Amino acid sequence: KNQVEQSPQSLIILEGKNCTLQCNYTVSPFSNLRWYKQDTGRGPVSLTIMTFSENTKSNGRYTATLDADTKQSSLHITASQLSDSASYICVVSDGGSYIPTFGRGTSLIVHP
Amino acid sequence: DVKVTQSSRYLVKRTGEKVFLECVQDMDHENMFWYRQDPGLGLRLIYFSYDVKMKEKGDIPEGYSVSREKKERFSLILESASTNQTSMYLCATLQGASRQPQHFGDGTRLSIL
User: How close B2 gets to chain A, by Cα (Å)?
Assistant: First the structure.
């Protein structure tokens, strides 16, 4: 069964610090992986999407990495801001269907 | 700018009622999705549509139906609402081959009493 596990479940950091969120998956065959940011009370917003051949993709202060061999991805946030407080969701597709596998998200709180 | 608009942010209905949730997109995207999001469970796909009048079941279609009569509009219908359908409902669209939703609406928080 396809699974996506995210860690940690929640994280608290101070403003200005860096952090890294993890996503491990068992989806096979792998097609692509997307990270979303979801602010409280809003819909998810796509941050990055990576295919098998890509191992790094950046979007401003957000950098996603992908290791297709170990089936792991990470989302690194640099110089965190209060507005980074949100839930971050990892989603993986196998390319064969329109039903991707969602992780349960990491809740990030950035304190001043 | 891309826009996915859900008709209501908050909705309260009674058990047994027929409930309609509406979603409109302005991007001319082929694919539209309905998800529900519950604490600790993440997002789960209810139904999706890849073209007008076409629909496919997702992970949890029981108790729901959908309608797509026009490309820009995708409706989710709770045939006879039950308390276990209290949830956040999210509509999304996709254009392209990624198989993952690109743009989400801001959701409808539905409470069934």
Answer: 11
Mean pLDDT, to the nearest integer, of A77-96?
93
Task: Give the separation between CA B6 and CA A31, rounded to whole angstroms.
Answer: 30
**In angstroms, what separates the C-alpha of A111 from chain B's closest C-alpha?**
23
Give the pLDDT of residue B108. 96
d(CA A63, CA A111): 21
Buried b (16+ CB within 10 A) or exposed e, A40-55: eeebbebbbbbbeeee
Among B46, B99, B108, the residue to mutate for chain A (most A Cβ within 10 A): B99
Q: What is the pLDDT of residue A57?
A: 95
The answer to whether the Cα torsion of A22, A52, B37, A41 is positive or negative is positive
Among residues A93, A102, A31, the alpha carbon closest in space to that of B36 is found at: A102
* Residue A27 in this model has a pLDDT that exceeds 90: no
Res. A94 pLDDT band, cuts 50 70 90: confident
- The helix (run of H) or strand (run of E) holding residue B22 is strand B19-25
B-interface mutation test, from A35, A40, A98, most B Cβ less than 10 A away:
A98
B31/A contact by beta carbon, under 8 A: yes
Distance from C-alpha of B15 to C-alpha of B24, rounded to nearest angstrom? 26
- Interface contact A104, partner B, CB < 8 A: yes
Residue with tokens 């998810």: A44
